[in-house]
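Question: Hello, beginner here. Any chance you could explain the protein record under this note? Any guidance would be welcome.
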Amino acid sequence: MNSTVERLVQEALTHQHAGRLGIALPIYEEVLRHDPQNPQAHFSLGIAAYQQGEIGPAISHFKTAAKKAKKHPQVHQLLGLALMNAGDLTGARDALKKAVALQPKESQFHAQLGDVYRLERRAVLARQSFQKALQLDPANGYALLGMGQLEISVGNIQEAEGWFEKAVAAGKELPAVLHALTMGRKYSEKPAVLSQIEQLIADGEPRPPLDQSKLHWAAGKIYFDLGDIEEADRHYDSARRVGYPPFDEKLQEERMAFMKQVFDEAFFAERQEMATDSERPVFIFGMPRSGTTLVEQIVSRHSKAASGGEIPYFRHLQEDLGLKGAPSAALERRLKALEPKDAKKIARQYLAELDAFDKRAARVTDKMPHNFEMLWLMSLIFPKAAFIHCVREPADTCVSLLSHALSPAHNYCITQETLGRYFQGYADLMAHWAKVLPVEIYDLSYEDLVRDQEAKSRVLLGKTGLAWEDACLEFHKGDSPVTTFSNLQVRQPMFNSSIGRWKKHKAQLGPLFQALGPLAPSDS
């Protein structure tokens, strides 16, 4: 490090430690102009990006810092957290294991590694990591929260509340804990915890946007239960605006148009040799909050099926291929240059992912909702797989998306308008796939499934190639961990209270209905 860089780094650190981040960050940018690989600059810029919810830039900065500062556990820790937020659980696990190895007495590292295991649905390893964290620090809020979330994922609701209450009593991880606690309760009168949540919202304390948003999600949930829909929607709107980064609608429109142009009937007719014979995958997809978790639980109750949850393989492959970025002629050439050997490699890798869940199961579910963008490749490689498209009343789906906290990757939900237009784009793409894909896509209506559970479940199992088993009617008794926001609903028998939920919010949904256009309810 030359003297100029060293002086700039020390100057930036002085401002950073004094809380003057707005002064420190431009100095770090200047450091990178002199020393593009400077680990301290990348680390600090990564922290700033992470705190602002800019997960992609944060990962990039942390990865660069980790290459240069291999012995600094905090670099690997924050890289792991950023990767976990991005859905790269394998990368997150590897990074956090490095942090633990470098500093094994740090309880927070064990707790955060436990959270990765929880999301990977490896309950035994998650519990071990949380317990190790609590041995080192009995008041570790992250571990207390994680233990509660782990208990919810396996259906132990009362035990979960006990862990959340311990965290509240310790005053640790309050935004996340209060949010988790409210999600598991039904309120008929204003609880004392609401005052605590509203005081935290208004206290002016600087906290990461995601934490501030969780407080709004919690308040919104309580007000919804109390029947004050207007106040609930006000908090939901604040939660989204605080917690989600801006959404690039123009890029999304360009991407959808590109896929419909490139992946036409001729594209599939010319690539039949890319197919494999495997029947193992059961792809369950559609918009989030459309019933994908429910459908997965029904299928996975079968004795010859296993639950894979949301497998990120094709979402990561989508990024690797460049399909998350701006379309280009070069991207089109790259996609059309994929060869049968590439398809065979992808198939081997994906089937190995399924083996990790259960090597003996005849069918393994993959309920990653946004796989609907990758159906072009999935159908080419696995034409004998089951393709289950979960559909639900658009207004109900959108209201659910607007009122539940999702990861920053779902920033298309930031406003009613962006969500409505995104939904139209999704529906248009699915209509295109129905015309050109070389596979049958089974559209399973959430409303029909709720109203006629057995008949629709029998058809569903038939589409997977599995013989009927009565256990599939008792989806709520499954023992597969559920890590999505449906984890409470799928532990209960079928109910229809979510049908028509949009009507409770009708007075506030004008912008959504206008954006949905022809997909808006006829009586809106």
The beta strands are 281-285, 305-307, 363-366, 386-391, 442-445. The radius of gyration is 24 Å. Confidence is low (pLDDT under 50) at residues 482-491. The chain is about 60% helix and 5% strand.
